[in-house]
Amino acid sequence: MEKLAQKIVEAHGNLADWQTFNSVTATLKQGGALWGLKGHAGKLDDTSVTVGLKDEWASHAPFGPSGKVSFFSPGSVILKDGDRKVLEELKNPRASFAGHRLETPWSELQLAYFAGCAMWTYLNMPFLLARPDVVTSPLTDWTENGVTWQRLQVTFPNHIATHSRVQTLYVDADGLLKRHDYDVEIAGNTPGAHYVSDYVEVQGFKFPTTRKIFPRGPDGQSLPDPLVVSIDLSDIKLART
């Protein structure tokens, strides 16, 4: 790993220990303007998510008030009922967002795709930096509200489903994540500034439990309004089975 990438990973926990786990689960309370803008206000306000730590997959349950369950992977999104009977499936889901802009509504399957790839990225970060197919490069430092953070550019391979191929991490002097920038390709390349805070230690690893995402201006500064997405996490658990 590149030196700064290694510092960031080590600040969040031991990589060898992380690699012994297969999944992580968390309870989510979510808000922000995005869900209503996309036609799904309230659907994922209170839910839980489980994501894979080796293969890329995620599952939200419940997915909406009717108790559906979502299953996301880069090549397919599936919605099942409470008895795990398949209701709908979308193959090659990323292609379905062609021509989308920020205000374009999403189907339920498209919502499941976005929520799945987003939470897989968030809960696997920063340990994704250790993957051999992820390229990292340090950028110049960034000062915000009188505090200076180091920055790391992260380039993902095409086969990983995430917000955008190139993303930027901001970390404090200890290497803990403070901000995470990306462009949401499936929503017209909308630029976002994603702030993380309120760390807790779970099974030897540090997880932020508060996430707030704001628009990002052309100069890289975040904008105060609107709050695009908020995510509060609790009951975080790692599993080996």
What keyword list fits this structure?
single chain; 241 residues; mainly beta; outer membrane lipoprotein receptor (LolB), chain A; ten-stranded antiparallel sheet; three-stranded antiparallel sheet
Give a quick rundown of the structure:
With 241 residues, this protein is mainly beta.
Detailed description of the structure:
- It is a single chain.
- The chain is mainly beta.
- The protein has one domain: Clam (outer membrane lipoprotein receptor (LolB), chain A), CATH 2.50.20.
- It has helices spanning about 5-10, 15-20, 35, 110-125; strands spanning about 25-30, 45-50, 60, 70-75, 75-80, 85-90, 135-145, 145-155, 165-170, 175-185, 190-200, 205-215, 230-240.
- Strands 3-2-1-13-12-11-10-9-8-7 form a ten-stranded antiparallel beta sheet. Strands 4-5-6 form a three-stranded antiparallel beta sheet, covered by helices on one side.
- A hairpin with a 2-residue loop joins strand 7 and strand 8.
- The radius of gyration is 17 Å and the shape is globular.
- The mean pLDDT is about 95.
Question: Which architecture would the CATH scheme give at its second level?
Answer: Clam
In quaternary terms, these chains amount to: single chain
Q: Measure the end-to-end span.
A: 28 Å
Q: Which bin fits the share of residues in helices?
A: 10-25%
Net shape = globular
The biggest beta sheet is recorded as: 10 strands, antiparallel
Low-confidence stretches: none
User: Biggest sheet: strands side by side, in what order?
Assistant: 3-2-1-13-12-11-10-9-8-7
What value does the average pLDDT take? 97
Give the amount of beta strand, in percent. Answer: 35-45%
> Could you tell me the number of beta strands?
13
- What structural class do the secondary elements suggest? mainly beta
CA radius of gyration is 17 Å
Give the helices and strands as they follow along the chain.
Answer: HHEHEEEEEHEEEEEEE
Overall tally of structural domains: 1
CATH third-tier fold name: outer membrane lipoprotein receptor (LolB), chain A
Count of DSSP H/I helices: 4
